Automatic annotation (TrEMBL):
The lineage of its organism: Bacteria, Pseudomonadati, Bacteroidota, Flavobacteriia, Flavobacteriales. Gene3D superfamilies: Glutaredoxin (3.40.30.10). InterPro entries: Thioredoxin-like_fold, Thioredoxin-like_sf, Thioredoxin_domain. This is TlpA family protein disulfide reductase. Residues 333-467 form the Thioredoxin domain. It holds the Pfam family Thioredoxin_8. PROSITE patterns: PROKAR_LIPOPROTEIN, THIOREDOXIN_2.
Amino acid sequence: MIKYLQLLPSILTIISLGFFTSCDKKHSDEDFTAYFGGEVIDPQTNYVLLLKDNEVVDTLFLDEKNRFLHKFDSLTPGLYTFKHQPEYQYVYFDKNDSLMVLINTRDFDNSIVFCGRGYEKNNYLMEMYLLNEKDRSSMYDVFFRNSKDFIKNIDSSFALRKKVYEKHKAKNEWNESFDSLALASLELPKYFVKEVYPYAHKFISGENVIDELPKDYYNHRKKIDFNNPTFANYYPYVNYVTSLLNNITFTEKKGDIDEFTLENSIKKLNIADTLIKNHKIKNTVLNGLAMRYLLEDQNMYNNATFINRYLEISTDKKMQKEINNIAASIHKLTVGKKLPTENFVDINNNPIALEKLIHNQTVIFFCTTNAESHLNSVHKKVFKLKEKYPNVDFIAVNIDDSYEEWKTKLEGFNHKNIIEIHAVDFEKIREDWVINKIHRTIVLNADGTIKNAFVNLFDVNFEKNLE
């Protein structure tokens, strides 16, 4: 409540702008004018990008008060993305909408408030997003549960989110086009978790639950339209399809934990090629599969074989270039090499060189306050490992937070026997060290050379890397 009282003057200003640009003007059937504006608190750049299907529609520059407002003479209704580096979120435009948004970069997702014509739909999408993110932050704990408890948990959570959907739909009476997206924001996160559960549970517990699942467990698959262009760049949709392909190969192998073998990974490419006809969706899914595979298999021959098949199917030159760049970065992280140099600071904001922290075999893991459950779980895991392996050092690298957020968290956090450092430039370290998932872990030899740059601290076999 205090946060919103502090932001009230800005909100009122934007609302007034929203009323100004969304007056009850009548529009002809051929008129597709729309407005998009807002205010950015504590901006990181002097502009906001508006994108459609990952292509920039326009660059919206901030004025001296960190506000922006733009009239589009013609804006096709549908799902867009607005980005203020390095963060982004979705925004949905109906015909002739006049949307205003408030953004606070210190708490990007939680701060976003829409007003103006079309605000109800977008505030619903944000509310559902935040609820789903809350569930995702606790998934590590949920994946440990047996199948009955797991299903009970996700059904209970889904019932609460469905009430939110029904309340907003009844109040706002939105059209069928938006309703398909509203339903997707409700259903896809649940379907994603259901697909992930069998192999995630096996991965972290060693137990195979394939034969324990109810006969109707996968009935949701019948509802999925794999060629709906509306969802070509909608992350929850692409994320679900990717998890589905992972689970299909996992299940066909009767619980083979090594889902990222060359054989399994090429099979996923082939299934995607057969299942998905829409080129935008197919290319996005193929891109996700390729990135996941390259991060799991560092065999150069296998990588070349996989990429050749990927290139035969993919038709997006930009994505192909991205995959080739990732493969090149991974080549620099092979066993025996040293990590590319990055900039870090300690708790006192003093620069610190990573190589000066390496005296013994060292485990580097990553954390962020945006993933609270993982932050707590990974530190608990490391405490136990430190007791068992006292001669191994553990370095926690904070990513995706400001220095101030990180320092505040550490001041009230138990981090004994762990070296805590903060990455100054997350985008650079993400590219150089190829970090695309928070549970990524790197094991170094005592001389600072790489022993294994692509492991997971929660893998049941992780300790083999410390032997």
